[in-house]
Amino acid sequence: MKRVQAKPLGTLSRRTNRATDEKVESRPQEQKTSEEAVFDVQDLSVFYGDFRAVRNVTLAVSQRNITALIGPSGCGKTTVLRCFNRMNDLVDTARIEGNILYHGVDLYESRVDPVEVRRRVGMVFQKPNPFPKSIYDNVSFGPKIAGFKGSMDDLVEEALTKAALWDEVKSRLKESGMSLSGGQQQRLCIARAIAVQPDVILMDEPCSALDPIATGHIEDLMQDLKNDYTIIIVTHNMQQAARVSDMTAFFTAEVNEKQDRRTGVLVEFDHTERMFTNPSDERTENYVTGRFG
Ligand SMILES: Nc1ncnc2c1ncn2[C@@H]1O[C@H](COP(=O)(O)OP(=O)(O)O)[C@@H](O)[C@H]1O
Ligand SMILES: [Mg+2]
After folding, report:
1. Beta strands at 94-102 and 37-48: parallel, antiparallel or unpaired
2. At residue 229, what are phi and psi to the nearest 5 degrees?
């Protein structure tokens, strides 16, 4: 399959962007870490109006790895996830402090085009949300908008194959995406994300609306996908994080400085195996052993 013709790297490239260049050069240490990381999150806080929903998050997301964000409800997992493709820009009151570098480029730098960011950093939501269109059109929609010029049939087949859905739908491509089962719909949404040749796929509790068998399919699929993509998954299911992820970030919520609401904090970020067997923070241990949550 031909790759979707991405727009020139212009807006996201450090080399063609003097403002970003200067910024990065003045921080040689960050530049070093960012060369290895897809995302380098540095002291990130996210606010909704005056309310600081999550504070002081520092972590790095490695390429072709699965990174899980776990923690109790309200600790800011979705909020952090939505920063990675600037989805929070769509919330009027949201703003960030700190930095997120994407391949070494400041993701929130003014010249970065959020639409291009969202093409490179796709998202799969909790509730499968296919468009009310045919299976084929669900997958072809993004590439068409991006100006894809190659064989759309080939592209649709490859995206559906990668999403482990092709065999189940190849004889009914003209049927509505809504006619599929929940698990199939979620794989269709993954195919739709893949079709625009992203670099990263964000998944916000992608299995929470699915039965255990459909969940197993998605988890297996994630293992295949990580050969080609970097994946960040939010899950409230600790066993799922333990099964699928390479790295885990555990968040909790603490009463904030104003003592009125709870603010999310990153407690610990480490290799998943270590997080579940030998965490260094007692709060992580209490959570993963089920004593808190
Ligand atoms: N659009 C929003 N406007 C205001 N507050 C929000 C918004 N989205 C989330 N929050 C608040 O931010 C905090 C973190 O929410 P969220 O990121 O959804 O947590 P989680 O995904 O871990 O359950 C919560 O206190 C929530 O009420
Ligand atoms: Mg959430």
Report:
1. antiparallel
2. -130, 160
d(CA 94, CA 184): 33
Of 165, 162, 212, 161, give the one whose Cα is nearest residue 186: 165
User: Is the sign of the CA dihedral 113, 119, 125, 131 positive or negative?
Assistant: positive
CA of 204 to the centre of ligand 1 (A): 13
Q: Over the stretch 104-127, which tens digit does the pLDDT of each residue have?
A: 999 999 999 999 999 999 999 999
Q: Look up the CATH superfamily of 9-288.
A: P-loop containing nucleotide triphosphate hydrolases (3.40.50.300)
Question: For residues 189 and 124, is the Cβ–Cβ distance under 8 A?
Answer: yes
Task: Give strand pairing partners of 124.
Answer: 203
- Asked if pLDDT for residue 6 goes beyond 60, the answer is no
Q: Which of the four pLDDT bands, split at 50, 70 and 90, describes residue 44?
A: very high
Ligand 1 mutation pick, 78, 79, 83, max ligand atoms within 8 A of CB: 79
Sign of CA pseudo-dihedral 136, 138, 143, 145: positive
Residue range 165-222, pLDDT digits in tens: 999 999 999 999 999 999 999 999 999 999 999 999 999 999 999 999 999 999 999 9
The pair of structure tokens assigned to 110 is: 């003014």
Cα 177 off chain centre by:
23
53 lines ligand 1 (CB under 6 A): yes
Ligand nearest to the CA of 75: 1
Q: Is 74 in the pocket of ligand 1 (CB under 6 A)?
A: yes
- According to DSSP H, which parts of the chain are helical? 18-25, 28-36, 77-83, 114-120, 135-145, 152-162, 166-169, 182-194, 212-225, 238-244, 272-277, 282-288
